[in-house]
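During the no-cost extension, the postdoctoral fellow (Dr. R.K.) reprocessed legacy sequence entries with the updated structure-token encoder. One reprocessed record is reproduced below for audit purposes.
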Amino acid sequence: MPHSVDIHVGQRLKHLRVLRGLTQTDVADGLGISFQQVQKYELGRNRISASKLYELGRILAVQPGYFFEGIDEEICPETAQLDEEGARIASMLARIKDERLRSQIRSFISELANDQAA
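Re-encoded structure tokens follow.
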């Protein structure tokens, strides 16, 4: 059974990978491992060594300590799923170069969110 720390670190890895718009294969290539190994890291099934955490930090442009941030906070599965979806949307929005179009999309999302709240 995976340790809660390994699960947390894996979730942080997946969240940041998605936010950066990278595939598991992209990360795996940077580490010199298989994408299946990255899957196991993200699920917490395999522990990530200190040297791999260092390399992941380099690939994803964060300090290795990033993967442990919030370790003491309890994360519910619904919040983790929501964060992942939000990261995907943010990644897609960041790739739109036209600032006017990005602003219109943000306004559209804001209007939808306000309608749901009412």
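The CA atoms of residues 31 and 113 lie 39 Å apart. The chain has a mean pLDDT of 87. The remaining legacy entries will be reprocessed before the final report is submitted.
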